[in-house]
Amino acid sequence: MSEKSRTEAHSRRDKILDAAEALFAERGYDGVTLRQIAALAAVDVALTNYHFGTKKDLFTTVFHRRAAILNKVRDEALTACLNTKVPAMLEDIVEAYLRPLGEIQASADKGWKHYLSLVAWVNNSTEWGREFMTDNFNPFVSKFIDALKTTLPNADEQALYWGYHYMSGALTLTFADTRRLDTLSGGKASSSDITVGYKHMIPFIAAGFRAICDDPDNSNS
Amino acid sequence: MSEKSRTEAHSRRDKILDAAEALFAERGYDGVTLRQIAALAAVDVALTNYHFGTKKDLFTTVFHRRAAILNKVRDEALTACLNTKVPAMLEDIVEAYLRPLGEIQASADKGWKHYLSLVAWVNNSTEWGREFMTDNFNPFVSKFIDALKTTLPNADEQALYWGYHYMSGALTLTFADTRRLDTLSGGKASSSDITVGYKHMIPFIAAGFRAICDDPDNSNS
DNA sequence: GTCTATATGTTGATAGAC
DNA sequence: GTCTATCAACATATAGAC
Question: HSE (CB half, 13 Å, CA atoms) of A73?
């Protein structure tokens, strides 16, 4: 195989993945046809089957493509945070969790934006979440919750997990980028103003955790 | 038309709505076929068209069926809260917003549970949310945000709207009832333990609002 | 109101030529 | 690797008998 054809094939393969990522994120698995994906990628429909097998296989490939690198980036941020001060501040841990995602979403990279939007869709789906969220992201989430325990040693564990649930929901809706905050606020806030969205999310979530997880004795510490 | 046939027809009509509600909530609009809806309702496929028109029309009917009553219940709760004390406490306003939903979701009514799950799906979808969330729920949300302004008079409006966004995301993920908290926590918390989910949500969200909307001068008030 | 039968289109998938 | 051609299955929708 020549260098040229190898490169072109790889490029078409990637174009299918990019198109599938964008469309799955926008309309969900069932809302998208292989023909629409092929059209957006500007390749023949049969190529989706040649490169990835079934539609479900294609979805799996799309989801896994960025999951590993996402875990790596976030793991490094959390580890760095935990190494700078012991015990780490609650705000710092929450920031370590959220900031890498905010930077990705605020960046110019369309592909990553689509991927986060896809994660939002998966996270809110009972059946897709069970298959894709648990295996890919639970290990890192557990690490995050362990970190929270070090700074909230007296926390009721049930409250801690529900706090994570609220944060996950807030984050996920931010991923979804619905643009509905614009209409609601009459222009005073914008769903796509990601930098502002993450700037307020960190103190909001940290305060929430403290309110339900902190021991009454040191609630104003 | 006899009483009996009237009742039966109405019953079949309702069975289609109930089935559509349950399936749309579980798999989204495109993930469900009219045949599956008819099968779950135990009626003929052609009846969906006779009673509701197109598939999209059926979805619209399902969504509107409970929207009005939901708005009424929530409006009463918020109004009652605002009338008991002036200015109302932040926690009371958030509770007025959340508690009616918690009571509905914690009740034994399967239909309402499915409906809230459907709202979760719509809220996280850019294209469906634009069409169905804005018209149905924005007026009440604006009333809620106005109430927040009375108790957080110095709040930056942009922060206030983002706070609402975080609350909406947390609430929505709770609607979705993904059952994934169970796996993540190793049984220490359960997504379907709705009473606990709402009990912690109120102080969590209230503290979050205070952290980003309160004037620094009275941040520990 | 309900069902049978069917029109009409689209879907995912693949066999086979190049 | 890529494209043409085609398949069986399934979708929504409706006309017409009862």
Answer: 12
**Tell me, in Å, how far CA of B45 is from C1' of D3?**
39
Chain A 46-75 residues in 7 Å CB range of strand C: 46, 49, 53-56
In the chain, the amino acid numbered B132 is F
pLDDT average per 10 residues of sequence, chain A (221 residues): 60 97 98 98 98 98 98 98 92 98 97 98 98 97 98 97 98 98 98 98 98 69 38
- Closest among A28, A179, A120 to B126, alpha carbons compared: A179
Long-range contacts of B137-146 (CB under 8 A, 24+ apart): B137/B67, B137/B71, B138/A183, B138/A184, B139/B71, B140/B71, B140/B74, B140/B75, B140/B78, B141/A184, B142/A184, B143/B75, B143/B78, B144/B78, B144/B93, B144/B97
Give the predicted TM-score (pTM) of the model. Answer: 0.95
pLDDT at position B41 is 98
Q: Is the dihedral of CA B40, B41, B43, B48 positive or negative?
A: negative
- Fold of the CATH domain A1-53: Arc Repressor Mutant, subunit A (1.10.10)
Going by pLDDT thresholds of 50, 70 and 90, the confidence category of residue B214 is: confident
Q: Gap from B35 CA to D18 C1', in Å?
A: 23
B121-152 pLDDT tens trace: 999 999 999 999 999 999 999 999 999 999 99
**Structural domain boundaries in chain B:** 1-53, 66-218
Q: Which CATH superfamily is domain B66-218 in?
A: Tetracycline Repressor, domain 2 (1.10.357.10)
Helix intervals (H) in chain A: 3-27, 34-41, 45-52, 55-84, 90-106, 110-123, 126-151, 157-176, 180-185, 194-213
Q: What angle do CA B127, B131, B132 make, to 5 degrees?
A: 115
ω into B153 cis (within 30 of 0): no
Helix (H, G, I), strand (E, B), or coil: what is residue A85?
coil
Distances (CA, A) of B72 to B59, B64, B67: 21, 13, 9
What is the number of other CB atoms lying within 10 angstroms of the CB of residue B188? 13
In total, chain B counts a number of residues equal to 221
Tokens of B56: 């999209």
Instruction: Return the closest nucleotide (C1') to the Cα of B58.
Output: D12
